[in-house]
Amino acid sequence: VSVLTITVSCEVEPEIYSEVLPSEFFKTVDQINTAVAVAYVPLNDYFDIIEANSEVISDIGTQSLKSDNGWGGASGFLEHEWTSDMFQMNWTWSRASTGISTCNRLIEIISGTPDPSDEAIAELRALRAFYFYNMLQAYGNIPIETRFSDADPSPKQVTPQVAFDFIENELLESVDKLSTSKGIDKYGKVNKYAGYAILTQLYLNSERITGVSKWSQAASAAKVVMDQGGYQLTPGYFANFRTANEGSTENIWVVPYEEGSNCCFGPVLHTYLGSMDKTFDLNWNPWAGYSFQAEFYNSFEDDDLRKGMFIVGQQYTSDAGPG
How far apart are CA 316 and CA 241, in angstroms? Predict the structure, then answer.
Protein backbone atom coordinates (compact mmCIF):
# COMPACT_ATOMS: atom_id res chain seq x y z
CA VAL A 1 0.00 0.00 0.00
CA SER A 2 1.44 3.35 -0.97
CA VAL A 3 0.70 6.40 1.20
CA LEU A 4 1.18 9.92 0.00
CA THR A 5 1.55 12.49 2.75
CA ILE A 6 1.18 16.15 1.90
CA THR A 7 2.29 18.74 4.47
CA VAL A 8 1.05 22.28 4.12
CA SER A 9 2.78 25.03 6.10
CA CYS A 10 1.73 28.57 6.75
CA GLU A 11 3.19 31.50 8.61
CA VAL A 12 1.39 32.62 11.75
CA GLU A 13 1.97 36.15 12.96
CA PRO A 14 2.22 35.93 16.76
CA GLU A 15 0.35 38.40 18.93
CA ILE A 16 2.82 39.78 21.46
CA TYR A 17 1.42 40.77 24.83
CA SER A 18 4.66 41.75 26.60
CA GLU A 19 5.52 44.79 24.50
CA VAL A 20 3.77 48.12 24.21
CA LEU A 21 5.16 50.53 21.64
CA PRO A 22 5.06 54.29 22.30
CA SER A 23 3.10 54.73 19.08
CA GLU A 24 0.36 52.53 20.54
CA PHE A 25 0.34 54.15 23.98
CA PHE A 26 0.21 57.74 25.34
CA LYS A 27 -3.16 58.27 23.65
CA THR A 28 -5.49 58.69 26.63
CA VAL A 29 -5.31 60.66 29.86
CA ASP A 30 -5.17 57.43 31.88
CA GLN A 31 -2.30 56.08 29.80
CA ILE A 32 -0.31 59.29 30.16
CA ASN A 33 -0.96 59.47 33.92
CA THR A 34 0.17 55.85 34.28
CA ALA A 35 3.41 56.59 32.45
CA VAL A 36 4.10 59.82 34.35
CA ALA A 37 3.61 58.05 37.68
CA VAL A 38 6.86 56.15 37.10
CA ALA A 39 8.82 59.41 37.46
CA TYR A 40 7.68 59.67 41.08
CA VAL A 41 9.10 56.28 42.13
CA PRO A 42 12.47 57.66 43.41
CA LEU A 43 10.52 59.81 45.90
CA ASN A 44 9.78 56.59 47.77
CA ASP A 45 13.24 57.12 49.28
CA TYR A 46 12.80 60.85 49.82
CA PHE A 47 13.20 60.61 53.59
CA ASP A 48 16.34 58.52 53.24
CA ILE A 49 18.12 60.54 50.57
CA ILE A 50 17.12 64.10 51.36
CA GLU A 51 15.31 64.75 54.61
CA ALA A 52 17.42 62.59 56.91
CA ASN A 53 20.71 63.73 55.39
CA SER A 54 19.85 67.42 55.77
CA GLU A 55 18.72 66.99 59.38
CA VAL A 56 21.68 64.89 60.47
CA ILE A 57 24.10 67.64 59.46
CA SER A 58 22.07 70.23 61.40
CA ASP A 59 21.35 70.77 65.11
CA ILE A 60 18.23 68.60 64.85
CA GLY A 61 19.36 65.04 64.11
CA THR A 62 22.25 62.79 64.93
CA GLN A 63 23.50 59.22 64.55
CA SER A 64 24.34 58.31 68.11
CA LEU A 65 25.83 55.07 69.39
CA LYS A 66 23.14 52.70 70.62
CA SER A 67 23.13 49.70 72.91
CA ASP A 68 21.45 47.37 70.40
CA ASN A 69 23.84 47.92 67.52
CA GLY A 70 22.53 50.10 64.70
CA TRP A 71 24.63 52.49 62.66
CA GLY A 72 25.79 54.88 65.33
CA GLY A 73 28.73 57.19 65.50
CA ALA A 74 28.69 58.52 61.93
CA SER A 75 30.69 61.55 63.02
CA GLY A 76 31.68 62.47 59.46
CA PHE A 77 28.17 63.68 58.78
CA LEU A 78 27.94 65.64 62.00
CA GLU A 79 31.34 67.21 61.45
CA HIS A 80 30.56 68.07 57.81
CA GLU A 81 33.37 65.86 56.58
CA TRP A 82 31.77 64.02 53.68
CA THR A 83 33.44 61.36 51.57
CA SER A 84 32.35 59.57 48.41
CA ASP A 85 32.06 56.22 50.21
CA MET A 86 29.25 57.42 52.50
CA PHE A 87 26.20 55.52 51.33
CA GLN A 88 23.90 58.43 52.17
CA MET A 89 25.72 60.64 49.68
CA ASN A 90 25.56 57.95 47.01
CA TRP A 91 21.87 57.35 47.67
CA THR A 92 21.07 61.01 47.20
CA TRP A 93 22.89 61.04 43.88
CA SER A 94 21.48 57.79 42.51
CA ARG A 95 17.85 58.40 43.47
CA ALA A 96 17.74 62.03 42.28
CA SER A 97 19.58 61.29 39.03
CA THR A 98 17.26 58.33 38.39
CA GLY A 99 14.30 60.68 38.76
CA ILE A 100 15.87 63.17 36.36
CA SER A 101 16.64 60.49 33.76
CA THR A 102 13.10 59.10 33.95
CA CYS A 103 11.62 62.58 33.50
CA ASN A 104 13.91 63.16 30.50
CA ARG A 105 12.78 59.90 28.92
CA LEU A 106 9.08 60.57 29.40
CA ILE A 107 9.29 64.18 28.24
CA GLU A 108 11.04 62.98 25.09
CA ILE A 109 8.44 60.30 24.40
CA ILE A 110 5.37 62.43 25.13
CA SER A 111 6.77 65.35 23.13
CA GLY A 112 7.08 63.02 20.14
CA THR A 113 3.46 61.88 20.13
CA PRO A 114 0.99 63.30 17.59
CA ASP A 115 -0.91 65.24 20.26
CA PRO A 116 1.50 65.85 23.17
CA SER A 117 -0.03 66.72 26.55
CA ASP A 118 1.23 70.15 27.64
CA GLU A 119 0.07 69.49 31.21
CA ALA A 120 1.94 66.17 31.43
CA ILE A 121 5.14 67.72 30.08
CA ALA A 122 4.80 70.64 32.51
CA GLU A 123 4.31 68.19 35.39
CA LEU A 124 7.43 66.27 34.43
CA ARG A 125 9.48 69.46 34.02
CA ALA A 126 8.42 70.68 37.47
CA LEU A 127 9.16 67.30 39.02
CA ARG A 128 12.53 67.18 37.26
CA ALA A 129 13.28 70.67 38.59
CA PHE A 130 12.59 69.37 42.09
CA TYR A 131 15.07 66.53 41.60
CA PHE A 132 17.66 68.97 40.26
CA TYR A 133 17.00 71.29 43.19
CA ASN A 134 17.68 68.52 45.70
CA MET A 135 20.91 67.64 43.92
CA LEU A 136 21.89 71.31 43.97
CA GLN A 137 21.17 71.43 47.70
CA ALA A 138 23.33 68.38 48.35
CA TYR A 139 26.30 68.89 46.01
CA GLY A 140 26.53 72.48 44.72
CA ASN A 141 28.16 71.96 41.33
CA ILE A 142 25.98 69.50 39.43
CA PRO A 143 25.60 68.38 35.80
CA ILE A 144 22.52 69.52 33.87
CA GLU A 145 21.32 67.07 31.21
CA THR A 146 17.80 67.23 29.81
CA ARG A 147 18.15 64.79 26.90
CA PHE A 148 17.61 61.03 27.04
CA SER A 149 18.29 59.29 23.72
CA ASP A 150 21.20 61.59 22.89
CA ALA A 151 22.23 62.31 26.48
CA ASP A 152 25.89 62.94 27.23
CA PRO A 153 27.06 59.97 29.36
CA SER A 154 29.50 62.27 31.15
CA PRO A 155 27.85 65.69 31.33
CA LYS A 156 29.96 68.54 32.65
CA GLN A 157 29.21 70.24 35.94
CA VAL A 158 27.78 73.73 36.05
CA THR A 159 28.06 76.35 38.77
CA PRO A 160 25.34 76.71 41.42
CA GLN A 161 24.25 79.97 39.75
CA VAL A 162 23.73 78.28 36.38
CA ALA A 163 21.89 75.39 38.03
CA PHE A 164 19.70 77.81 40.00
CA ASP A 165 18.80 79.77 36.87
CA PHE A 166 17.94 76.56 35.01
CA ILE A 167 15.70 75.27 37.81
CA GLU A 168 13.99 78.65 38.18
CA ASN A 169 13.29 78.85 34.44
CA GLU A 170 11.93 75.29 34.31
CA LEU A 171 9.49 76.05 37.12
CA LEU A 172 8.44 79.44 35.76
CA GLU A 173 7.65 77.90 32.37
CA SER A 174 5.70 75.03 33.95
CA VAL A 175 3.75 76.11 37.04
CA ASP A 176 0.87 77.87 35.30
CA LYS A 177 0.35 74.91 32.97
CA LEU A 178 -0.12 72.51 35.88
CA SER A 179 -3.46 71.20 37.08
CA THR A 180 -5.26 73.12 39.82
CA SER A 181 -6.97 69.94 41.01
CA LYS A 182 -6.49 68.93 44.64
CA GLY A 183 -8.57 65.79 44.32
CA ILE A 184 -7.55 62.18 44.72
CA ASP A 185 -6.53 62.14 41.04
CA LYS A 186 -3.65 64.47 41.93
CA TYR A 187 -2.82 63.00 45.34
CA GLY A 188 0.95 62.73 45.47
CA LYS A 189 1.34 64.55 42.14
CA VAL A 190 2.80 67.97 41.35
CA ASN A 191 -0.13 70.33 40.78
CA LYS A 192 0.05 74.12 40.36
CA TYR A 193 0.33 74.78 44.08
CA ALA A 194 3.04 72.19 44.63
CA GLY A 195 4.93 73.77 41.74
CA TYR A 196 4.72 77.22 43.32
CA ALA A 197 5.73 75.75 46.68
CA ILE A 198 8.89 74.31 45.09
CA LEU A 199 9.55 77.70 43.51
CA THR A 200 9.07 79.36 46.92
CA GLN A 201 11.63 77.05 48.49
CA LEU A 202 14.10 77.75 45.69
CA TYR A 203 13.78 81.52 46.20
CA LEU A 204 14.07 81.20 49.98
CA ASN A 205 17.48 79.58 49.51
CA SER A 206 18.66 81.86 46.71
CA GLU A 207 21.01 83.92 48.86
CA ARG A 208 22.70 80.83 50.27
CA ILE A 209 23.07 79.22 46.84
CA THR A 210 23.89 82.19 44.62
CA GLY A 211 24.70 85.02 47.01
CA VAL A 212 21.72 87.03 45.76
CA SER A 213 18.53 87.16 47.86
CA LYS A 214 15.09 86.78 46.26
CA TRP A 215 12.79 87.40 49.20
CA SER A 216 10.14 89.30 47.25
CA GLN A 217 9.98 86.54 44.62
CA ALA A 218 9.61 83.97 47.41
CA ALA A 219 6.74 85.98 48.90
CA SER A 220 5.01 86.27 45.51
CA ALA A 221 5.27 82.52 44.83
CA ALA A 222 4.01 81.67 48.32
CA LYS A 223 1.11 84.09 47.89
CA VAL A 224 -0.15 82.06 44.92
CA VAL A 225 -0.26 78.95 47.11
CA MET A 226 -2.00 80.77 49.96
CA ASP A 227 -4.46 82.86 47.96
CA GLN A 228 -5.38 80.39 45.22
CA GLY A 229 -4.76 76.99 46.78
CA GLY A 230 -7.38 77.20 49.50
CA TYR A 231 -5.18 75.39 52.01
CA GLN A 232 -5.74 75.84 55.73
CA LEU A 233 -4.46 74.35 58.96
CA THR A 234 -6.02 70.98 59.78
CA PRO A 235 -7.46 70.72 63.30
CA GLY A 236 -5.10 68.47 65.24
CA TYR A 237 -1.40 68.50 64.34
CA PHE A 238 -1.13 64.72 63.90
CA ALA A 239 -4.12 64.41 61.57
CA ASN A 240 -1.85 65.24 58.63
CA PHE A 241 0.31 62.19 59.34
CA ARG A 242 -2.34 59.52 59.81
CA THR A 243 -2.62 56.59 57.43
CA ALA A 244 -5.75 58.01 55.78
CA ASN A 245 -4.76 61.65 55.30
CA GLU A 246 -6.10 62.15 51.78
CA GLY A 247 -8.63 64.67 53.09
CA SER A 248 -6.07 66.92 54.74
CA THR A 249 -6.61 70.61 54.04
CA GLU A 250 -3.00 71.32 54.98
CA ASN A 251 -0.84 68.96 52.93
CA ILE A 252 0.22 70.56 49.65
CA TRP A 253 2.28 67.69 48.25
CA VAL A 254 2.81 64.27 49.78
CA VAL A 255 4.74 61.09 49.04
CA PRO A 256 2.24 58.21 49.25
CA TYR A 257 3.24 54.95 50.91
CA GLU A 258 1.33 51.69 50.85
CA GLU A 259 1.66 49.13 53.61
CA GLY A 260 3.54 46.05 52.48
CA SER A 261 5.13 47.66 49.41
CA ASN A 262 8.89 48.11 49.07
CA CYS A 263 9.66 46.50 52.45
CA CYS A 264 9.57 49.31 54.92
CA PHE A 265 8.71 52.92 55.64
CA GLY A 266 11.98 54.89 55.67
CA PRO A 267 11.51 56.92 58.86
CA VAL A 268 10.64 53.72 60.76
CA LEU A 269 13.32 51.56 59.16
CA HIS A 270 16.12 54.05 59.79
CA THR A 271 15.18 55.43 63.20
CA TYR A 272 13.57 52.77 65.40
CA LEU A 273 15.83 50.64 67.57
CA GLY A 274 16.52 47.15 66.33
CA SER A 275 14.52 45.61 69.17
CA MET A 276 11.44 47.74 68.52
CA ASP A 277 10.09 45.21 66.03
CA LYS A 278 8.55 43.62 69.13
CA THR A 279 7.04 46.93 70.21
CA PHE A 280 5.26 47.59 66.93
CA ASP A 281 4.84 44.00 65.69
CA LEU A 282 7.06 44.55 62.67
CA ASN A 283 8.08 41.57 60.57
CA TRP A 284 11.53 43.11 59.98
CA ASN A 285 14.19 44.67 62.18
CA PRO A 286 14.69 48.45 62.13
CA TRP A 287 18.23 49.71 61.61
CA ALA A 288 18.59 52.05 64.62
CA GLY A 289 20.18 54.79 62.57
CA TYR A 290 18.95 58.30 63.22
CA SER A 291 17.99 60.05 66.45
CA PHE A 292 17.05 63.55 67.53
CA GLN A 293 19.47 65.64 69.52
CA ALA A 294 18.46 66.20 73.14
CA GLU A 295 18.66 69.98 72.76
CA PHE A 296 16.11 69.89 69.94
CA TYR A 297 13.73 67.70 71.97
CA ASN A 298 14.04 69.98 74.99
CA SER A 299 13.30 73.06 72.86
CA PHE A 300 9.61 72.05 72.92
CA GLU A 301 7.57 73.23 75.90
CA ASP A 302 6.15 70.42 78.04
CA ASP A 303 2.57 71.39 77.13
CA ASP A 304 3.33 71.47 73.39
CA LEU A 305 1.27 68.65 71.89
CA ARG A 306 3.84 68.26 69.11
CA LYS A 307 6.17 66.78 71.71
CA GLY A 308 4.07 63.65 71.39
CA MET A 309 5.76 62.87 68.08
CA PHE A 310 8.92 61.73 69.90
CA ILE A 311 9.41 58.21 71.19
CA VAL A 312 11.08 58.47 74.61
CA GLY A 313 11.60 56.37 77.71
CA GLN A 314 11.17 52.69 78.41
CA GLN A 315 9.74 50.66 75.53
CA TYR A 316 7.80 47.42 75.87
CA THR A 317 6.75 44.57 73.66
CA SER A 318 3.25 44.88 72.24
CA ASP A 319 2.08 42.10 74.55
CA ALA A 320 3.53 43.66 77.70
CA GLY A 321 2.27 47.20 77.14
CA PRO A 322 1.72 50.04 77.63
CA GLY A 323 1.50 51.19 74.02
Answer: 23
Q: Say yes or no to pLDDT of 64 above 80.
A: no
Residue 9 has pLDDT above 60, yes or no: no
Helices and strands in the chain: count of H runs, count of E runs? 13, 4
CA within 13 Å, CB half, 286? 24
Beta bridge partners of 62: 291
Q: What are phi and psi of 211, to 5 degrees?
A: 90, -5
Report d(CA 137, CA 261) in Å as an integer. Answer: 29
| Contact present, 143 and 156 (Cβ < 8 Å) | yes
- pLDDT per residue as tens digits for the range 154-208: 999 999 999 999 999 999 999 999 999 998 888 899 999 999 999 999 999 999 9
Rounded to 5°, angle at Cα 289 from 139 and 280: 135
Beta strands in the chain (DSSP E): 61-62, 142-143, 157-158, 291-292
Answer whether the bond into residue 322 is a cis peptide, omega within 30°: yes
